[in-house]
Amino acid sequence: MQPKIKSKVVCTDREIGEVARVIVDPLTRDISHLVVKAGGLELMVPTEGNVSAVTDETVRLNCASGDLAKFGRFHREEFVQVQEVEIAHLERHLDVTPGEVLVPLPLLERDLSRRSFFTKFTNAIGAVLALPLIFPALKYIMYPMYQPFNNSWIKLGREQSAQTDIPKLMKFQKTVQEGFLKREFEKSHWVIKPSPELREKIYAERGGEKSLEFRDERGNLLWKNRPDAEVVVLSGKCPHLGCAFRWRKHRVFGQAFVCPCHLSIFDSTGKVLDGPSPRPLDLLPTQVTAGGEVKIIDMEFKAGKQAQIRIV
């Protein structure tokens, strides 16, 4: 007769507890250990040499209760239920329901850190071997993301259409390369034909002669606006969060650039009069051809920053 779960466990001197679980040897398909719950502990008692008799309700051990310390403690994480393993006809050899019938986990299954190390090591070797094949494809796909800034000149409009000291909105079509696709959309900037006094204020507001210089991503001088330029072009994006703004009459400041999104207000030089904008309106590289055509390098700068940081 096989020991059953919930059977009383009796030593030679007294009753000590009950059978909480049984452990099956997956090779012999016999019960190899009893998990005895005694005094709040779960002890693993080998059946061979320790079980003297088994009845319907009782399992008798051939040792005294004082000798229980020689048995090791039960660790649940080292075992798995019989139902979770595929061992053919194992259930036919057992008569221990209801309760947990366990089989030991293989040593490799217990050592998860060792398994995960070898798994990661194998994956790393695979990645190294695959890199020479993948790198050319990744380089081809990602190249458009790391192209240098577009510093080509774009036609914006004609100088003659602007009036002295009065900003004029000029629109143009711009083509942008996004990955391997080209997209065309409309943009606009503000053109001012400044008087000498206004031109001086525009540059003074931005640090004098330094505001005339524009540099590429390597820090090399790309372009320098003429100090006596016929026109000045202000970016059409608010430095606060990149919103569009308009030149309109304001009840406090008179004629001013007003951004309706967050109420940043600028005068005709681009100076911040009110609102959250962290810097004046951005100047753009500008030149005027002999025929009076205004050209720019269309730059965009990071919004919300006090310093000008080019992003396009």
Shape: rod-shaped
Mean pLDDT: 85
H/I helix tally: 3
Helix/strand/pairing category: alpha+beta
- SSE run: EEEEEEEEHHEEEHEEEEEEEEE
Radius of gyration: 42 Å
Distance, first to last CA? 84 Å
Strand content: 25-35%
User: What is the number of beta strands?
Assistant: 20
- Main sheet: strands, sense, barrel: 8 strands, mixed
Helix content: 10-25%
Architecture overview:
The protein is α+β, with helices and mostly antiparallel strands and 312 residues long. It is 14% helix and 34% strand. The protein contains three helices and 20 strands. The chain has helices at residues 107-110, 112-142, 196-205; strands at 8-10, 15-24, 31-38, 41-46, 51-54, 58-61, 79-81, 100-104, 153-158, 168-178, 181-192, 213-215, 221-224, 232-234, 246-250, 254-258, 265-266, 272-274, 286-288, 293-297. The strands form five sheets. Strands 1, 2, 3, 4, 5, 6, 7 and 8 form an eight-stranded mixed β-sheet that branches. Strands 15-16-17-18 form a four-stranded antiparallel β-sheet, with no helix packed on it. A three-stranded antiparallel β-sheet has the order 9-20-19, with no helix packed on it. Strand 17 and strand 18 form a beta hairpin. The mean pLDDT is 85.
